Every structure is written in structure tokens, then in C-alpha cells.
Amino acid sequence: MLSTKTDEQLVTEVLAGKTPAFQTLYYRHVDRIFGLVTRILGPGRPEREDVVQEIFFQAHRSLCNFKGDASFSTWLHRIGINVAYSHIRKQASRQEYATEHLPASASTTDQSEARTDARRKISQLYGFLGDMQPKNRIVFVLYEFEGLTLDKISSALDLPLHTVASRLRRSRAALLKALAAPGDTARMETETETES
Questions:
Q1: How does pLDDT run along the chain (196 residues), one tens digit per residue?
Q2: CATH topology (fold) of 1-97
Q3: Which class does domain 104-196 fall in?
Q4: Among candidates 123, 119, 120, 135, which has minimal Cα distance to 98?
Q5: Rounded Cα gap, residues 77 and 163, in angstroms
């Protein structure tokens, strides 16, 4: 049975100790949060579900801090961005953030050639993104995939607007260089960083 209560009413119920209300919030928002995590981490990453669970755990734990200044979905989206960003920073620091978990290209016997080519390009894009520094990657994904404005990214990441704009420029430049010379993405990302 779908609840007709608003997110804010459900938050009030959760804070009053009514556990089923948080379950309703979870089911209402889990698909959107999973999509966000997929776009930030990349498709086929086995840890996506763990990151989604961590986001909802953090949200539940921080629910008493929800002030209602923004909608619950906006508040949850920000938590999702922060948890996913933290995850890719940890992965990068362990040097495990590579493309080995990207989905394999489908064979042309199973799918049309156009679909196979599109899948290859998506895998290549996520490979390039995996080579970017996490601080640049998160800005790129939020701007290009999530459609957030620079102001909203600045607010979500708690960064000055000029820093967000600079990181977006760097990530775009690195991506363009990588597309021009495949196989050299890590070096190009480093070069782009030192130029700024």
C-alpha cells in the first residue's frame, strides 16, 4: 500500500519512533539513489548496493538534523553525493578504481551492432572517468549526468563556486585529451591538474 503522506510527514513519524515510516521513505527514494550511485561509480560496480545502503544508513542516523529547509529528496540526494564521493576517494586511494568491473561488451550475435557500439562507448567513458581524480570526477558526473547547476554542486560539495567551475573545466579537458589519445588518460589527467 502506497503512503499518501509527504516525505516531511514521514520524517516526523520516524523521529517519533515509527519505524515503518522510514521503510516507506526508503522504497520511495531507493531507485533514484541507486541511479545516482550508478552514475557516480559507474555501471556494473558490485559495491553499488552497499553504497546505497550506506546512504540510507547515514540518512537515518542524521534524520534528527533534517531541518526542512530543502525537501527531503534534496537532502537525501546530498547525502548520496557525499557518501558516493567518499567511496570513490577511498577506492582511488587504494588504487582499485579501475575498469575491471565494467560490463563486457555484448556480442553482435545477441544485439545489434549499434547497441554494441553504444555499450563500448559507455564502457570507454566510464573507463576515462575512472582515471580522473575523484574530486574532478564527482563534479563532472553531477554536472553532466545529474544535470545539477554549478551553484547546486557548490552547495552539495560545500565548495566555492570557482573551485567547482575549475574542476569541471579540468575534467572536461582531461576527457577531451583522453578521447584524442586513448590509453593515456592517467597521464593526461595529471597534466591537466598541473596546468591549472
A1: 567 899 999 999 999 999 899 999 999 999 999 999 998 888 878 899 999 999 999 999 999 999 888 899 999 999 999 999 999 888 766 554 444 454 554 444 445 777 777 777 777 777 888 788 889 988 998 898 888 899 989 988 889 999 999 999 999 888 888 777 655 444 444 444 444 4
A2: Rna Polymerase Sigma Factor; Chain: A (1.10.1740)
A3: mainly alpha
A4: 123
A5: 21
Q: Cell 503512503 sits at which residue?
A: 3
Kindly tell me the burial class for residue 63, based on how many C-beta atoms sit within 10 Å of its own C-beta (0-12, 13-18, 19 or more): middle
Q: How far apart are CA 113 and CA 102, in angstroms?
A: 19
Domain ranges for the chain, please list them.
1-97, 104-196
- CA 146/CA 188 separation, integer angstroms: 25
Count, residues in the chain: 196
Question: Max Cα separation, the chain?
Answer: 57
8 Å CB contact between 170 and 196: yes
